[in-house]
Design goal:
Helices cover about 40% and strands about 15% of the residues. By secondary structure, it is an alpha/beta fold. Strands 2-10-9-8-5-3-4 form a seven-stranded mixed sheet, with helices on both faces. A three-stranded antiparallel sheet has the order 11-14-13, with no helix packed on it.
Length: about 375
Amino acid sequence: MNLNNLPENPYLLLTPGPLSTTKGVKAAMLKDWCTWDDDYNNLVQDVRNGLLQLANLNNAEYTTVLMQGSGTFSVESVIGTCVPKTGKILILSNGAYGNRMVKIAKTLDIDVHVLNFSELSTPDLKRIEFILKADSDISHIAMVHCETTTGMLNPIREVGVLAKRFNKTYIVDAMSSFGGIPISVDKWGIDFLISSANKCIQGVPGFGFVIAKTEKLKQCNNQARSHSLDLYDQWETMENLNGKWRFTSPTHVVRAFKQAMDELSVEGGIKVRYERYKNNQRTLVKGMRKLGFNPLLEDKIQSPIITTFQSPESDTYSFGRFYQRLKNKGFVIYPGKVTNFQCFRIGNIGEIHESDINNLLNAIEISIFW
């Protein structure tokens, strides 16, 4: 297939996902697949094994489960399956996605201890340690790695040390970081890591995945609070039936994801992609500061995934108009999500390179109208 014949996208998605993908990923979706056929199921197994290789894990101690739906479906499948009726989960939240885990736990009637932190600060390890000492009923700890409410990178390594010290099962929402930031799942004590097809591996939306410590996952049999989102049953089916999903799977999305994984390997792996994302982010912030836009977070807690900028203090500024002008010039950015600040967000993951960031900065400079 001549990829040059594929139509160009009218704009780049400078968002935390879905994101701009390569023509190779798009082209991978042009073939139909049968969910019962060995060709497809072998493809699923390749994806599952490939995820373990990306995470530098062995299949003797770790396994993977793919789950239909958005990344939130996978988060709910983990929380709803892994916490037993007698368990209690400590959720550390400093943004919308930590709050979403709290909402999931409460909706499922799971005993939950919520430890809230400011949207502009990382979780306080001393407060976490105090809670773990005071509340022995806590069996699980859950937190977000890259909180894309602001773009903050949370200290999952340090919290992992506490989780293991107090013998707690550790759940990490690495939705917007896995594949784009090096993560040592085993050394950091992560028992369940959750991510999605349409983030840093640069696939398209349609499923999420869970990298799990096999011993921990085996303990989850008959614990799920949902039939469709039963993580254990999904894993057992994939294990016993060579990659078969329990219910209809997003076949085209899985094939596109495999292509995206192959392209990540060609690029040089996670470390090389991480450097590209970091360079994108540094170039973006440097240019935005020259244009008078200040990042909301301090540099030391800022991720390379997405950056929040404070809105201009001008009566004539309108995000809607600013957004539309940039879209007309080929760039889509994200509205702000921080509670008490007027702001907007710009992501630099996906098929985005330094030249794209420089073109964006030029477009922003000529789009300033206040």
